[in-house]
Structures are given as C-alpha cells and as structure tokens.
C-alpha cells in the first residue's frame, strides 16, 4: 500500500491515558497491572516495506516481539503473553490490528509513536518519544 509511514526507530514511553480502566476491561491480572503502570517500555520497530518486526522491551529484561506483514495473517502475542492470529491492516496511515478482545492502532504523529487500544468503549493511549 502507498502512504505507509516510516515507523523504523526506537521509542521510549512518555505518557499514557486510561491505563487502569483499559487493563480492567481486558482482564489483565493485578500483578501484571502493577508491572505495566507507568512502565518505561522501549519499543523498537524495524520496517522493511510492508514487513515489520515490533519489539517491546520491558524493565527487568522481558521482551515481546511480533513479526508481521501488512495484509497477511501472523501469529502475535498480547501484553498478557497470550498467542493469537491477526492480520495487521493499514488504514489512513495507521497500522491496525484486532487483538482477541481489543483493537490496537499505531501511528507516527509529530515524530512520536502513538498507540491506541480500544476495548468496549474504553480507549487507552500510549505515547512514546523517538530516541533513535
């Protein structure tokens, strides 16, 4: 698809909105909720055309990597460690993925990585600044 943004880079957590309401909606366990709150997640994205490797590094050495191609089904992993299949689409310059119980979009806005997850009307937004 034309108009895909350049996502490649390293991004560090800057701020988020509606974290508690969102993780309650998706049923994250309380220990994981505490771990994720104000978590200085570093997101590393390598983009090669429509192919992406999307890694999130959590404090304490845990990482989650999802590799996918826009428009093709891929196996992904949720924040909670559940595996599922999803097809990432490109809509209006945003990457869109339907996770088992929420919809996740990622976009580059003002040089920042803005990720939005929506579950049952609750919208969680995480903004990360580019560091590399």
UniProtKB/TrEMBL annotation:
Q: Which residues form the Cytosolic fatty-acid binding proteins domain?
A: 9-26
Q: Does the keyword Hydrolase apply?
A: no
GO CC term, one of those recorded? cytoplasm
Where is this protein found? Cytoplasm
| Transmembrane helix in keyword set | no
The alphabetized UniProt keywords are: Cytoplasm, Lipid-binding, Transport
A Pfam family (short name) is Lipocalin_7
Q: Which GO terms describe its molecular function?
A: lipid binding
The UniProt family comment states: Belongs to the calycin superfamily. Fatty-acid binding protein (FABP) family.
User: What protein does this entry describe?
Assistant: FABP6 protein
Specify the taxonomic lineage: Eukaryota, Metazoa, Chordata, Craniata, Vertebrata
